[in-house]
């Protein structure tokens, strides 16, 4: 199986939280894969991640995991209805809300945007790189953030909303190793894709979101635990600048 998005960084597993989600889940359940670079335009849905499994192409992190669970039923965790409901609720809290906050603090926030112009499309020379990002990616995301709703609020109100969601995630995790106990599930893959970027991609994410997340020490140790358990030796987080 192959799936892709450029590993533009060795600081975080992927700068796409949805690619990081699929990669973390593949590692949680122990399914082997080859990671291939790709562009959203290569994907049938115009977004990454996409997997190639034999002759099947599957796009979108949600459908990729559903497809793999159908194909490899032995990896499906046996969860009770309440556990399953909690996992689904956390998946949507992260994928459909917190990741929009990440998009804002990465692409709209001045510090995040400054880093994006250095780190994204790094194979395209400047000033063409900044031109392409500021005429395409950034305005598209700005429109998407307004449609989603978060983009309509003041900076202060965005943080109030995001902080409440982070507090909820922290309370759900509590002092457990993973969201449902001792074994990581889909919800942990989602939470990791988001938190890994917020806490460790100091170059391309505005610091206010990182500081909001750092207030919840259990979220920090949980992210570090997933990094050291499932990405051991691959992510050089100790070299992350502390600015
Ligand atoms: N619902 C999708 C979201 C995927 C997504 O937003 N991918 C972004 C990268 S983080 C992308 O490919 N964006 C390109 C675009 O929308 O043009 C999933 O869960 O996979």
UniProtKB/TrEMBL annotation:
SUPFAM superfamilies: GST C-terminal domain-like, Thioredoxin-like. Residues 1-76 form the GST N-terminal domain. Belongs to the FAX family. This is GST N-terminal domain-containing protein. Gene3D superfamilies: 1.20.1050.10, Glutaredoxin.
């Amino acid at each position: 199986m192959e799936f892709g998005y450029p590993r533009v960084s060795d600081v975080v597993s992927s700068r796409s939280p949805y690619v990081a989600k699929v990669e973390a889940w593949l590692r949680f359940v122990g399914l082997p894969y080859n990671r291939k670079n790709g562009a959203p335009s290569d994907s049938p849905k115009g977004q990454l991640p996409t997997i190639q499994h034999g002759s099947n192409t599957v796009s979108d992190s949600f459908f990729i995991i559903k497809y793999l669970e159908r194909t490899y039923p032995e990896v499906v965790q046996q969860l009770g209805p309440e556990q399953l409901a909690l996992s689904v609720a956390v998946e949507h809290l992260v994928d459909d809300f917190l990741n929009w906050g990440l998009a804002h603090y990465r692409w709209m926030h001045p510090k995040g945007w400054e880093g994006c112009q250095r780190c994204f499309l790094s194979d395209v020379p400047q000033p063409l790189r900044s031109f392409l990002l500021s005429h395409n990616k950034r305005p598209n995301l700005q429109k998407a953030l307004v449609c989603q709703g978060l983009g309509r609020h003041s900076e202060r109100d965005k943080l109030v909303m995001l902080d409440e969601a982070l507090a909820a995630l922290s309370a759900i995790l509590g002092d457990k190793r993973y969201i449902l106990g001792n074994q990581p599930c889909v919800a942990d893959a989602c939470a990791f894709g988001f938190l890994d970027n917020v806490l460790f991609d100091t170059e391309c994410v505005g610091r206010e979101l990182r500081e909001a997340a750092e207030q919840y020490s259990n979220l920090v140790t949980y992210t570090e635990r997933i990094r050291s358990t499932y990405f051991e030796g691959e992510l050089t987080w100790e070299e992350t600048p502390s600015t």
